[in-house]
Input
Amino acid sequence: MDASAKAHRRRLPAGRKADLAAYVEQTGQVTVGDLAEHFDVSIDTIRRDLDQLDRDGVLIRTHGGAVSAANGQLKDRALDVRLNMQKEEKERIARVAADLVQDGSVVMLNAGTTTLAVARALRNHHDLTIATNNLRIPAEISPSAFRDLFVFGGAVRAITQATTGPVTFTMTPGGPEVDIRCDLALIAVGAIDQEGYSTSNLGDASMMSEMIQRAERIAILADSSKFGRRLFAQIATLERADYLITDKSPPREVAAALAQADVEVLTP
Output
């Protein structure tokens, strides 16, 4: 290997990790030895990089190497990682979702980068009441869009920047729960198959299910990478939703099941 090639491969750690992640995604499955040779760094360095990328949810660490997250059971990814995944698709979904929101209505939004995109897309709305467990929404939604903004309490999950807990509020600390309802629940999910909507975290699934139960209308949000997959915890069966908002038409089997369940598919 000539000096210029070595210089190219001996990049700063952040750049190397980005290249490493892209290489694993393209290759599908790799060993530590292969990566060390490819990037011309030590095996210990590769192991540290892989461990960090696994913690970030970018890939899945295995004994002796790593696999692309697309090839195995997907783990929770850090929010900052997910913000750059299917970004354009999420923004298109968000614009369609925003069109369903009526000024003056009550809207529930769950955690996730797709619902964060929806919050930004509501900038031309007014007098909304927003309830969410997404800790990023208060800082990123336009102040002119809402009259009231509420965040559900519970345990904070740092990796998703969201709370996990009951979908309830009380008038006073320790007082009785207030029965809350919303006009529209916008629920971003991790996977969709013929059996229903699912996600990787049990606590998240419980919150999404309760938001759905408290809504007059339900719109499920999912980009096309979520089709034909099933994750750990089921949120609801297909017929519980009124709409599925996605970036392109679902595959034939999923589309048939959605039609049978009387779910309207909305695309940009």
User: Anything to note?
Assistant: Residues 13-27 form the longest helix (15 residues).
